[in-house]
């Protein structure tokens, strides 16, 4: 029975030379922060673009097609489903990682803003308390005492 389960286990995919090359290009693009990642998840379309390097990648996940475009050429090919899924996994992971960085940055900004507001309110309350104390001491000094 154990052998049966081993039989159904997916073997690691061995990519062709061109698939390895394309996967390398895409992962290198993903490493560069100036590469934009956009997606239409409902349509299964993912777009990578790097204006500095004049390079674009379009991944049509539903059709297993990857289009590479630079200033001179544009090549679109249909690839093995598992290969395209692996490429999409890398793209989605990088997109998620970037979203987490933005989320953390926004959270830190909000926390710092809240801390500054809190400190400002404390200072304002302390100033108000000092004004009230001064007014109270002035009232005590100006009151006349009747000794009758």
Fold and architecture overview:
It is a single chain. With 148 residues, the chain is α+β, with helices and mostly antiparallel strands. The chain is 57% helix and 18% strand. The chain has helices at 2-8, 17-31, 81-142, and strands spanning 36-40, 45-50, 55-60, 65-69, 74-78. It has a 5-stranded antiparallel β-sheet, covered by helices on one side. A hairpin with a 4-residue loop joins strand 3 (55-60) and strand 4 (65-69). The longest helix has 62 residues, at 81-142.
Brief synopsis:
The chain has 148 residues and is of the alpha+beta class. The protein is built from 3 helices and 5 strands. It is 57% helix and 18% strand.
């Amino acid at each position: 029975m154990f052998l049966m389960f081993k039989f159904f286990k997916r073997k690691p995919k061995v990519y062709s030379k061109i698939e390895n090359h394309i996967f390398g290009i895409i992962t290198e693009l993903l490493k560069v922060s100036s590469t934009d990642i956009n997606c239409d998840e409902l349509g299964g379309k993912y777009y990578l673009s790097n204006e500095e390097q004049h390079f674009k990648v379009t991944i049509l996940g539903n059709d297993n097609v990857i289009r590479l475009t630079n200033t001179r050429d544009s090549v679109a090919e249909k690839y093995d489903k598992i290969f395209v899924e692996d490429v999409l996994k890398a793209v989605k992971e990088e997109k998620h990682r970037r979203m987490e960085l933005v989320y953390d940055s926004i959270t830190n900004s909000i926390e710092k803003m809240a801390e500054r507001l809190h400190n400002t309110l404390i200072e304002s309350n302390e100033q108000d308390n000092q004004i009230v104390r001064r007014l109270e001491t002035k009232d005590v000094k100006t009151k006349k005492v009747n000794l009758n």
